[in-house]
Write a structure and sequence with these properties.
The structure holds two protein chains of two kinds. By secondary structure, chain A is α/β, with parallel strands linked by helices. Chain A has twelve helices and 13 strands. Chain A has an eight-stranded mixed beta sheet with strand order 1-2-3-5-4-6-7-8, sandwiched between helices. In chain A, α2 packs parallel to α3 and α9 runs parallel beside α11. Chain A is elongated, with a radius of gyration of 33 Å. Chain B is an all-alpha fold. Chain B has eight helices and no strands. In chain B, α2 packs across α5 and α6 runs antiparallel to α7. Chain B is elongated. The termini of chain B are far apart. Classes of the chains: A alpha/beta, B mainly alpha. Chains A and B meet through α3, α10, α11 and α12 of A and α1 and α3 of B.
Chain lengths: 410, 197
């Protein structure tokens, strides 16, 4: 299209042909070039964004999966970890736990095929771990083995642990990250499972009494989802729909105090060894220890702090050397109140048993609070060390299967 | 072994060196490495034992009785008697499915009838495992006495297979004899399975 040109000042319009002034033509060329450039830029950016989006989608895919969200799972990569949940997709999270997760998933698939009523229970915890993480790998494996045993019994139609109910259960395996810090998106995803024919009815797992666990329990409570804390004992771990199945630190300490006061009047001097970490379990335990020691053992004002290890499986050189010196040689303590995580108990016992700083003939009693004794139940060498060093343990615990196994009751 | 430098007694000096501290960094490093690697190896070994015990415990809880007995039979040849008895005790504490119809001793007999193979020491290991497993159930009641006696008899039969362990085995036999005696003497004080249910 060419614009007509005009001449004369009188205003008579006389068309002079399709000639375009070079200046105007240049302007048109420039406009046209800019438009083409713009179109190309937009198209280029679009292609770039598409590739980038595709790459991001691929980066979010967990190894071996082709999608992030399907009815049977919702899993995506976050900071190098596969975070989310799975019900019927056999995803192992790590090679070490893939055997046991496969069994749980297989059981879930059988429940779905059975055609009877069923509900879902989520186990929210770290599914990957190593020697330095919140939950070491061995703890994760054993927790999942326990989950599988419970699920098998609950789903056994011939010999139902819960009585005559025909309700079956699927276990939702939910990975909250190895540092237990990815629970927020997982809880959002789990909240979507609470409706439908097979609703999510509860969340368990969660781990120990630490601030992250409290926040996760609060978030689940806000969504109206019941939470069962298997090993939560801190007295301040309270939330609207959070249920405890273990006694509290207060109850444990009352039991310890009652036993020491009634049966161990011979213990004159006490010493408190406390983990210096700041979390709900340790804080409430130490507060109770301070209150109780004054009553039960008058000389028990002595205390020392240490920085705990992550996992008892790692050799932590000299973790309790200073404490052993002070307890055995300086204070010559009768009863040691151990206010720390049970994973450090074996290291403490070994340090006390092998300490050579001074001659000591007197036996020593260690008073502890645990949901189970861990290493003391499974490490025969440790028990042998205790015997030879005259170390005994008074343990306030949720279970006492050593006594139960031989039919003894208190 | 590094040789310390000779003690010098240079003439014309006010101070005479009569002793030197010997400190060989390489030797110290090597000793520290050796000590900690030994410690770590011991802890790793202990962790492996614990892991194996835990795996057997859960397998028994899931009714893999024959497989667990097979593992325990294989372990007879490669572990000390103390360790083997510790393992047997730890594993047999696995929670058992509640049987509403069979009394403990009958349950033990049935399990053993179902799984007898005619090969030793597997059958004896199976025998001791089943009896201790059922006796370790908190709901077992006064029938423990008979189960403990049968268990004790099985342990005595395993003596020849536990090469190094006369004293450990004898201690275990005495312990279970004492438990059996206690349960025989005061059965009326102990609730029976039916009463507990």
């Amino acid at each position: 299209v060419t614009a007509p040109t005009f001449s004369g000042a009188s205003g008579n319009l006389v068309p002079k042909g399709p000639e375009i002034p070079p200046q105007r033509r240049r302007r048109w060329h420039m406009v046209l070039s800019l438009v083409i450039l713009l179109v190309l830029s937009v198209a280029g950016y679009g292609v770039y964004a598409l590739i980038k989006w595709h790459q991001e989608q691929e980066a979010r895919l967990c190894p071996g999966l082709t999608e992030t969200d399907r009815p049977e799972y919702s899993l995506s990569m976050v900071n190098g970890e596969c975070i989310g949940w799975t019900i019927e997709q056999d995803y192992g999270f790590s090679p070490a736990i893939s055997d046991i997760t496969s069994k749980i998933i297989k059981q879930n698939q059988q429940v779905a095929q059975r055609g009877t009523r069923y509900a879902r229970i989520a186990v929210l915890m770290p599914m990957t771990g190593n020697d330095t993480t919140v939950m070491p790998e061995s703890t994760i494996i054993n927790a999942l083995r326990g989950v599988y045993t419970a699920q098998s019994r609950a789903n056994d139609p011939d010999n139902h642990t819960l009585g005559s109910t025909s309700l079956a259960f699927q276990v939702v395996l939910a990975n909250g990250g190895k540092a237990a810090d990815q629970w927020r998106p997982v809880i959002d995803q789990l909240a979507k499972l609470t409706g439908g024919d097979h609703p999510l009815v509860a969340v368990t797992g969660l781990g120990s009494s630490v601030p992250n666990t409290k926040s996760a329990a609060d978030a689940l409570s806000e969504r109206g989802i019941p939470v069962i804390g298997a090993v939560l004992t801190a007295t301040d771990m309270v939330s609207k729909t959070l249920f405890h199945v273990s006694p509290s630190n207060e109850q444990y300490m009352a039991a310890l105090r009652a036993y020491v006061d009634k049966h161990r009047g011979d213990l004159a001097s006490g010493f408190l060894l406390r983990d210096s970490k700041d979390d709900n379990y340790l804080n409430t335990l130490i507060r109770r220890h301070h209150e109780r020691i004054r009553i039960s053992v008058p000389a028990g004002e002595q205390h020392l702090a240490y920085t705990s290890s992550r996992d008892a499986g790692i050799a932590v050189p000299n973790l309790f050397k200073l404490a052993a010196d002070k307890i055995l040689c300086t204070e010559k303590t009768d009863i040691l109140f151990f206010s720390g995580r049970s994973r450090d108990l074996a290291s403490l016992i070994n340090e006390l048993a092998n300490h050579t700083g001074c001659v000591r003939d007197k036996p020593i009693v260690i008073a502890v609070v645990t949901t189970g004794l861990g290493a003391l139940d499974t490490d025969s060498q440790l028990v042998e060390n205790m015997r030879s060093a005259k170390i005994s343990v008074i343990n306030a615990s949720s279970t006492d299967y050593r006594s139960w196994a031989v039919g003894m009751t208190v | 072994v590094p040789v310390p430098p000779p003690i010098t007694r240079a003439s014309g000096k006010k101070k005479v060196v009569i002793a030197r501290y010997v400190h060989n960094d390489r030797l110290i490093d090597a000793l520290m490495t050796q000590a900690f690697s030994t410690l770590n190896r011991l802890q790793e070994r202990s962790a492996r034992f614990r892991e194996f015990d835990a795996a057997l415990y859960y397998r028994l809880a899931n009714d893999e009785l024959e497989a667990v007995a097979r593992e325990l039979t294989d372990a007879l040849k490669i572990t000390t008697s103390t360790r083997w008895l510790f393992r047997l005790t730890a594993v047999s504490r696995a929670p058992r499915r509640i049987s509403n119809t069979l009394a403990p001793e009958q349950a033990a007999k049935q399990r053993l009838t179902d799984s007898v193979t005619g090969t030793e020491p597997f059958d004896t290991v199976m025998n001791v495992l089943v009896r201790l497993w059922i006796a370790s159930d908190p709901l077992c009641g006064s029938e423990r006495a008979a189960l403990y006696r049968q268990f004790k008899g099985g342990l005595e039969m395993l003596k020849e297979h536990l090469g190094d362990g006369d004293s450990a085995l004898q201690a275990a036999v005495d312990h279970y004899e004492e438990l059996a005696h206690r349960w025989t003497r005061t059965p009326h004080l102990r609730p029976t399975l039916e009463e507990r249910q």
